[in-house]
Amino acid sequence: MNTLELQKMAVEVRKGIIDGVHSAKAGHPGGSLSAADIFTYLYFEEMNIDPKNPKDPNRDRFVLSKGHTAPGLYSALAHKGYFPVEDLLTLRHIGSYLQGHPDMKHIPGVDMSSGSLGQGLSAAVGMALSAKLKNADYRTYCLTGDGEIQEGQIWEAAMFAGSRNLDNLCVIVDNNNLQIDGTIEDVCSPYPIDKKFEAFNFHVINVNGNDFDELRAAFDEAKATKDQPTAIIAHTTKGKGVSFMENQVGWHGKAPNDEEYAIAIEDLRKAGEALCQK
Asked: Transketolase N-terminal domain: which residues (predicted)?
């Protein structure tokens, strides 16, 4: 996809996030929206995947370490063709396979069950190591949150990945600077994030995580990097794309009511129309 096509798809992914969380009357829209462009780039441009063959042993792997932003992952998976888009409206409903956190046993396209923060990167490192041991070509991608990296297990996994030169591993930190209790530096500052990953022998790239041209350059650079895993520090806006949610910590884990839902969908409709004029 070119940049304009990716931008249009990201609007659809964001609509799916809002639809799902509103229907569930629960969920995490803020961090799903900040990472929507990352989900879109991974699933529609970067990763070697096939919705018709979701268990292909040669597929690239993705682990959503910050599993509470499942609405974003589910929307990307649905629009990619892993399951019907209308199923997003069953998010968190009794009997639905679309649980509040990713479930690898029931959701097509999900490579790892996640949601207990800090654990996903360890699983991703194991996948990357497995590929090395088997001389397989697949790459492993892991999306973490900037609040999540306050967990010590993240750095144990990073230390192992760096020491084993896992250049088939790409970690993306969704650095929207807000977690459930406030700004990340006020809760427990992980800054400088880039210097910490560099200390664990990562190749580090800082980008605007809501800009597809910058994401494209970063992921291309990651693939070209040898003998080091890559960490992409994606500077994003929490709630990106919905006017009243942007940079508002209160929208970390709250569903919009009917009136707010209408405003959010109208914001995204206008964004989509504007892109169609280009």
From this structure: 8-262
